[in-house]
Amino acid sequence: MAAQGEETRTEGGRAGGVIEALRASPLPRVRWGLILVWFLRLMAVLWMMMGLLAWADILGLTPSPVPFEDRGLGAQAVVVYFAVFNLVAAVGLWLTSTWGGIMWLLALMSHMIMAIFLPQVVASGVFTVAMFGVLAVLYLVISWLAAHDQE
Q: I need a labelling partner for 15 at 20 to 30 A (CA). Which of 29, 37, 64, 140 fits?
């Protein structure tokens, strides 16, 4: 019986030693603030390209079935809105400012809403709308994790 007690004590000691060693070892910690900065910068580059594509459409540099000047006033307003709004959101995202994230979410949501309810004005597929939704949720999750990250 004493041998069993010694084995149990030794096994418990080994397990306790492993746990203590794991606690003492410097495990790599996820730095959510840094991940958020990289996510915002990546989204800034993508939204900058989207804004520049809208300006290319306005200037007639992209192949389009209907030239910008021949479109209806509503369709022109939507293109100009995204040409300006996407670039402003991209600058705010690159600066990693709070207003940049808000502007980006507004641009993203307005694109999704127009793509769903006005598909003749904003040509986007189901995949694009789904990806924008995933990006919005990902941004909110990473922002929450970064805000609650303990130094």
A: 29
Q: At what angle do helices 98-117 and 32-59 cross, to 10 degrees?
A: 50
* CA–CA dist 28, 35 (Å, integer): 14
**Inter-residue contact 42 to 49 (CB < 8 Å):** no
How long a stretch of residues is the chain? 151
> How many Cα atoms sit within 13 Å of 62 on the Cβ side?
12
Give the tens place of pLDDT for each residue, 68-125: 999 999 889 999 999 999 999 999 999 999 999 999 999 999 999 998 888 887 878 8
Q: What is the DSSP letter of 97?
A: -
Number of Cα atoms under 13 Å in the Cβ half of residue 47: 29
* Rounded Cα distance, 143 and 105, in Å: 13
Alpha-carbon span 149 to 58, nearest angstrom = 43
Alpha-carbon distance values, 44 to 4, 12, 41, 91 (Å) = 64, 53, 5, 7
Rounded CA gap, 19 and 8, in Å?
A: 16
Task: Give me 47's structure tokens.
Answer: 């939204």
